[in-house]
Amino acid sequence: MTADPRWLPRFEGELVQLGLEPARARHLAEETSQQASEFGASPTELFGPAHLYARHLVAALSAPEDPAPQAHATPELARGRVLLSLERVGKRHRRTTVFADVDLTVRAGEVAAVVGANGCGKSTLLRICAGLVKPTTGTVRRTARVGYVPQEGGTAGWLTPAEHFALFGAAARMAPRRARSTGEHLARRLAWRPDRARCAQHLSGGTRQKLNLVLGELHAPDLLLLDEPYQGFDQGTYVDFWQQVRAWRDSGRGVVVVTHLLHDLRHVDQVLDLSAAAPDPETTRAGAGRGPGRRA
């Protein structure tokens, strides 16, 4: 590997400029050098420009590890601009109404959960939010920078994680080296060190879902749409995931997460019960096309 002798001093100096104590900055520089050695790469190859990686690291260190329950709710006045707005949104498949009259507003610094019975259209609603599916009725407004993490799929089995990072980064106009280093950094937040030689088809289901999460965040979106993103996670990674959700909220991002686990709801600011937007069964069987619906 080709090492840049100036990378570590620049990295350490940038950490100090960003407010870390010199001893702490030196320790982190030593850890970073060790991580690069374990991967058999130079810090430049693995992490990208020193000043950018320093900013990523300081942002991660600034996220609260376990905020008190009362800190979970963001005061209304502190919440930012609207990132997602659904007004009377409905979806029909042929003559069957899946849901109707759904209203939802998500602002910067908010986490919203979408819950409901199986088959009520939670995944369909999230795809509508992402712009992948058109609603039958209603209006959808969203910010331009959106990250979408599907419940299944989303990766190419024959590509390695690093190749995924470069491919998805190219779509966001990121240089390949920067995309790979950013992906490696985000993966470590989920306690995952991608194997450079292993293709996605040989990863476990939980690890593929970690890859999906990293790809959804790679381009630093303002709004993250997550469809039961923790499938296959062990307990430790599940806890890491919700810590990351809090970090996204604290950084001013908006998050919408589909979940069927009721104990997840203590982590969120608002809940949309999609079952409340289900049509009247008798009306649907009669072929009226649209059930009465209720605002959720």
Walk me through this protein's architecture.
The protein is α/β, with parallel strands linked by helices and 296 residues long. The chain has a domain at 1-62. It has ten helices and eight strands. The chain has helices at residues 7-17, 22-39, 43-47, 50-62, 122-130, 161-171, 176-189, 205-217, 235-250, 281-285; strands at residues 82-93, 96-107, 111-115, 137-142, 146-149, 223-227, 254-258, 270-273. The strands form two sheets. Strands 5-6-7-3-8 form a five-stranded parallel beta sheet, with helices on both faces. A three-stranded antiparallel beta sheet has the order 2-1-4, with helices on one face. Helix 1 crosses helix 4 (50-62) and helix 4 (50-62) runs parallel beside helix 7 (176-189). It is elongated and about 65 Å long. The protein starts with 6 loop residues before the first helix and ends in an 11-residue tail after the last helix.
Structural class: alpha/beta
> Which series of helices and strands comes N to C?
HHHHEEEHEEHHHEHEEH
Give the termini separation.
56 Å
Assembly status: single chain
Largest sheet: 5 strands, parallel
Attribute tags:
single chain; 296 residues; alpha/beta; five-stranded parallel β-sheet; 8 strands; disordered C terminus
